[in-house]
DNA sequence: CGCACTACTGCAATCAGTTGCAACAGCGTG
DNA sequence: CACGCTGTTGCAACTGATTGCAGTAGTGCG
């Protein structure tokens, strides 16, 4: 099956942000463009403050509250998902990373994505009691293999 | 060996805090007493700011930084564990609640403890790749049975 | 009992994130 | 192409949490 698992819409979801906003009666502004530009060139994770900094580096004038409010909107459109790192700070998951939960090592601070079979396994554990796990919002903390042997 | 699974130290861990501190060369101060007093009468969860407020209500003069620093110390003694609620704010788990992970419903905001068999099941999922899950630090987000049918 | 060592506290500054509000500016209309 | 509706921005104030630092005060020792 050569069926592409990734459709164009999945690959370039950012291209249509403007239209998606329009469709909901929302507006396309320079500030939102700055945020989207940064996100479009980000794969994986980015924290709120990091995003703000990168927007500012892009000359566009943005203020934190605007960035956070824009992120709320983008999350409603399903373009990003937010979670909280091990230290509780906000962390936005972009692209493929938005689909998976994460494993966080308490010792070295690194993190990994939870792959599909394991995500399903976790979901199954709680499916029995009727609880539908949101796989993208799961962060499991522990100690990674390397740190354990070290 | 009828080894009791719960020793007196487990049941009343707060009684010996002072000694535990002493053993590590740490000190017993009015502020720490206030924090411990509040925690000793708390079962389950408490947020940082809630704890501060309750300490202040106890007449003792405490300042936020001291409370948070005291919590760090108590966490090192294993008397509390901290996690982060769905909104990322700090949440301290006290007593029995410190032992379990939590299930959080994104819709109604309620949460439940993850029971032993299920905690083990989750741990097992990642044991295969050498990752040792810290069961007390797990918070799984999703939608609970009630909200799903509603 | 009083001294000294050093852990601990309080303060003030700072960071991350949120919110209310008045002014601003997309963008559809006429 | 100007107008105006209403979504959006920036500001300022605020909450929760953290940190550096100077002064304070537990605690062991003589």
What do you see in this structure?
The structure is a homodimer of 150-residue chains. The first copy, chain A, has 150 residues and is of the alpha+beta class. Chain A has two domains: 8-97, Winged helix-like DNA-binding domain superfamily/Winged helix DNA-binding domain (Arc Repressor Mutant, subunit A); 100-149, Dna Ligase, domain 1. Helices cover 41% and strands 19% of the residues of chain A. A three-stranded antiparallel β-sheet of chain A has the order 1-3-2. Chain A has a three-stranded mixed β-sheet with strand order 5-4-7. In chain A, helix 3 (30-40) crosses helix 4 (48-57). Chain A starts with 7 loop residues before the first helix and ends with a helix. The model of chain A is unreliable at 1-9 (pLDDT under 50). Chain B binds a DNA duplex (30 and 30 nucleotides) through residues 22, 25-29, 31-32, 47-49, 52, 61-66, 68-70, 88-90.
Question: How would you describe this structure in keywords?
Answer:
homodimer, globular, three-stranded mixed beta sheet, DNA-binding, Arc Repressor Mutant, subunit A, 2 domains, about 40% helix, alpha+beta, Dna Ligase, domain 1, disordered N terminus, about 150 residues, three-stranded antiparallel beta sheet
Q: How many whole angstroms does the radius of gyration of chain A measure?
A: 17 Å
Mean pLDDT of chain A: 85
Work out the number of β strands of chain A.
Answer: 7
CATH superfamily of the largest domain in chain A: Winged helix-like DNA-binding domain superfamily/Winged helix DNA-binding domain
* Uncertain spans of chain A: 1-9
Tell me the strand order in the biggest sheet of chain A. Answer: 1-3-2
What can be said about the biggest beta sheet of chain A? 3 strands, antiparallel
Dominant shape of chain A? globular
Tally the helices of chain A: 7
* Oligomer description: homodimer
SSE succession of chain A: HHHEHHEEEEHEEH
- Broad structural category of chain A: alpha+beta
């Amino acid at each position: 099956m050569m069926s592409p698992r990734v459709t164009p819409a999945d690959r370039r979801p950012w291209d249509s942000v403007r239209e998606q906003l329009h469709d909901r009666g929302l507006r396309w502004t320079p500030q939102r463009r700055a945020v989207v530009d940064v996100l479009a060139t980000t794969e994986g994770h980015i924290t709120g403050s990091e995003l703000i900094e990168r927007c500012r580096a892009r000359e566009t004038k943005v203020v934190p509250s605007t960035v956070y409010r824009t992120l709320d909107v983008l999350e409603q459109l399903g373009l990003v998902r937010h979670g909280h790192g091990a230290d509780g700070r906000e962390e936005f998951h972009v692209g493929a990373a938005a689909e998976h939960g994460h494993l966080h090592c308490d010792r070295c601070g690194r993190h990994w994505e939870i792959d599909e079979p394991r995500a399903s396994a976790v979901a199954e554990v709680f499916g029995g009691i009727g609880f539908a796990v949101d796989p993208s919002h799961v962060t499991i903390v522990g100690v990674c293999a390397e740190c354990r042997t070290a």
